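User: Can you predict the 3D structure for this chain?
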Amino acid sequence: MPPPGRRFKNEPQKLSSVIKDTSYALKLMWKVSPVYVLGRLLANSGFALWRTFFQRVYFLRELMLLITNGAEFGEYMRLLTIFTVLSLVAYALETIGDYIWDVQAKNIYKGLNRMIFDKASKADLACYEDPKYYNVYQRATEVVSESYYSSFIWDISEIVSTLVSLVALISYIMTVDVRITVVLLLILPVFYFEARRNKLNYKMDREMTPYRREKAYVQRVVFLRDYAKDMRTSDIYSVMRSRFDAAVEKNREVIRKYGWKTGGLELLNNLLSQVIPSGVAYGYGAYRFMVSKDLEVADFTVLVTAVNSAINSIRVMASALASVQSSALYFGNFREFMNYENRIVSGDRGIEKIESIEFRDVTFTYPGADRPSLRGVSLKIDRGQTVAIVGRNGAGKTTFVKLLLRFYDPDCGVILVNGVDIKEYDLSQLRALFGTVFQDYKVFALSVNENVLCRETETDADRELSREALVASGAWDKVSALPDGAETVLTREFDPRGSGLSGGEQQKVAAARMFAHAFDVAVLDEPSSALDPIAEYKMYEALMEKTLGRTAVYISHRLSSATLSDRIFVFENGTVVQSGSHEELMNAGGLYADMFTMQAQSYRKGGEDEDGARF
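Assistant: Here is the predicted structure, written as structure tokens:
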């Protein structure tokens, strides 16, 4: 099966696409913060012109002329004072500018991150089955995490500013001796070597991406509380450490692969851009001053300084151009990620309520899997029915939920809602009609109220709605005893007054989300998997009350809830093998009757729970 959505690229972008990527990056940065872009260009150009021409050439020449022409000391000091004052003003403005740009850079950081987060939050779930997605996502985030957005604008401003100062320097050099400008031509190959070296660095960095992800995974696992007990009661840490060491060694191999090439290019770069041009310029200047004697000492001194400044400016420009090329490639990764097109595309048909749900000969295989998770599933659920989807682990129950919520689309067959293909409906409107509790529930490092309402809680009405939902899910007694009640942040990762909850209590908080929201159809995928039987029974009572008169779909391998359902669908190996009421299925025998009998026997032998209650 092909990867989801648009295929991500396997190879680095070619040089021919750098112009497009650079244009894209400039438009993107201008869109996020035009003040930062324009301010950097103007400020850097002004400061570069001051430092490289006025400070190092113009004022130096004027001072040297005063000395060689025998001017008064007071005249020399007046010029020096003007130079000092202007220097202080220039550096003060530069310091203030740097502060302003740092503040503006945070706006870019926020804006780009928000774009990435918004895109990632809407990506197809199938992306999480594709390693390429994670690689492209990480490379896209590097635009922000590695500050390529900042270095890109800095490099663009360096190119513009050095060009301005270079024009001034070359203009001065030509007034002294036009032939000396030939020396600057010796530096031109540096542009090629810098571009080549940066491209190799980019390729090296790209090859290291999957190994960086492996290292980051180990760092995350060792840090997170979820894995702490397993780490301390098994030898899994040694396995993770070996994976980390292997990833580091892989990165070292990549560095060794490219290291000699980049080092050789850097050596050639320094030779051609610094050693040879400086030597030629110094020799030629000395010849005119000492042999031809047609060059004044002031002009000789300033000429050498001007040539060095021009050489340095060309080196800076070459480095900035190569860096822009490298940054543009990273922005190409960003564009590739942002241009990803979902396969799950919203329709434009509105929907206000759900009268019926029908799976008609639906088959589905996860990306990369070698066999279908659902095979020819056909079933129908009418409004107001309470339906149980039961079966052993791996039978396809959760996959059924994912297709119902359009996290995936079937490979063949059709899912109908109100007799209409589900693909025709507006996706946000459709999902808003479902109240869900997932098997792999998650709580966030936010307050209990925010976890329940899934938004910021600002009013007493919000807090009361959250409290009622927590009471219904059975979590209120525990939550009300927390240090700050329902305002307590779950986990102490960011708040020392935060608190952790047991798996069962977390599941109750997750279930409270459904109680706090209006819905048309309740979908509960193993909503009590972490609860003991008594807590489970109480939750189901509340769920039955909340869903009275509404459609409810229970997904469970525990069959106690099935007895309360109007209709039961039994899944096995990705298909529906039985359907009917509890009594009908028990009378018919088969898989459901066998599973129910076995679970009933295990409950009778189960003993007491932690509160002393029998089950």
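The first helix runs from residue 18 to 32. The chain has three domains: 15-338, 349-433+520-607, 441-518.
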